[in-house]
Amino acid sequence: TERYCVFGHPVGHSRSPSIHSAFAAQHGATIDYTAIEAPLDDFAGAWQAFTNTGGVGANVTVPFKEEAFRLADTLSERAKRAGAVNTLSLTSAGTTQGDTTDGVGLVRDLEHHGVALKDSHVLILGAGGAVRGVLEPILATGPASVLIANRTAMKARALAADFQDMGSVEGGGFDTVSGAYDLVINGTSASLAGDLPPLPDSLFASNGTAYDMMYGAEPTVFLQWARERSARTLDGLGMLVEQAAESYYLWRGKHPDTRAVLEALRADVV
Ligand code: ATR
User: Fold this and answer.
1) Which of 206, 208, 245, 263 has its CA at 20 to 30 Å from residue 92's CA atom?
2) Mean per-residue pLDDT for 178-200?
3) DSSP reduced 3-state for 264
């Protein structure tokens, strides 16, 4: 039985063990996938201890994605661009490969929900690690424009500058937000505090979609606000399942059926 885990701090409420076990069960396999709370001051030691005891792969969540990036011996191109790693793999040579599946997870979830990115006008709220992690796959779909708006305008401008070569992307403060967007992605951690960035009422184009990278038992304040303005709303649970599926594929070479697992998660049966 292959050993995998998710590292986080805290990590007790992680859905990743049930998601990955459900993926394995789809083709009659069993994996040993646990949640491990790594110490804040020794992430590298936790990965070392895990591989010493037979671990072959790990997902990495808050707050260790940048440390995992620094720890990896080799990095995928998309991880280099993201500056973060959410998937570690032990290679047959005993080295550690780092990759990130968050961005592809977000884009696949949008595709599965029929949200077109190509030629669309996209607004992204936030300019932290979570947003940096998804920019490349979003820009690769060919949106007409992407505006990154952040409380700290300078961070949004710097982030946009880093991705200039990939398409039409600009950054600014929330005061630069104007016009109607086909898709608004909330990548701020404001939801956690129940906060909402200051946004104009006329934010959404007709048939516009609001996507929150966060999820919870109840819709986030951002999604509630968007629903009141007639936008279609999607939470980040689908992204969670899709990023997990891509990690699973990296480790085990099989593409799980994500729809079945997402439905089970929503029904709270896995
Ligand atoms: P993460 O890994 O979740 O991206 P981060 O790198 O700390 O974490 O980034 C958090 C993001 O949420 C930032 O864009 C932050 O805005 P600032 O750059 O101005 O700090 C944003 N954020 C956090 N709390 C917020 C709030 N109450 N209102 C608006 N934006 C908020």
Assistant:
1) 245
2) 92
3) helix
Q: Does domain 3-100+238-266 have CATH number 3.40.50.10860?
A: yes
* pTM (whole model) above 0.90: yes
Residue 218 DSSP one-character state:
S
Residue 102 is classified by DSSP as H
Mutate to test the pocket of ligand 1, among 61, 65, 189, 191 (most ligand atoms within 8 A of CB): 189
Shared fold status for 3-100+238-266 and 103-235: yes
Ligand 1 binding pocket includes 193 (Cβ within 6 Å): yes
Question: Is 153 labelled a binding residue?
Answer: yes
Q: State the ipTM, two decimals.
A: 0.97
Q: Where are the domains of the chain?
A: 3-100+238-266, 103-235
Instruction: Specify whether 80 is catalytic.
Output: no
Q: What CATH architecture does domain 103-235 belong to? A: 3-Layer(aba) Sandwich (3.40)
pLDDT, tens digit, 9 for 90 and up, residues 14-45: 999 999 999 999 999 999 999 999 999 999 99
**pLDDT given for residue 269 in this prediction:** 67
Cis peptide preceding 63, ω within 30 of 0: yes
The active-site residue out of 65, 80, 118, 254 is 65
Residue type (1 letter), 67: E
**Ligand 1: which of 188, 213, 240 to mutate, judged by most atoms within 8 Å of the beta carbon?**
188
Cα-to-centroid distance, 39 and ligand 1 (Å) = 23
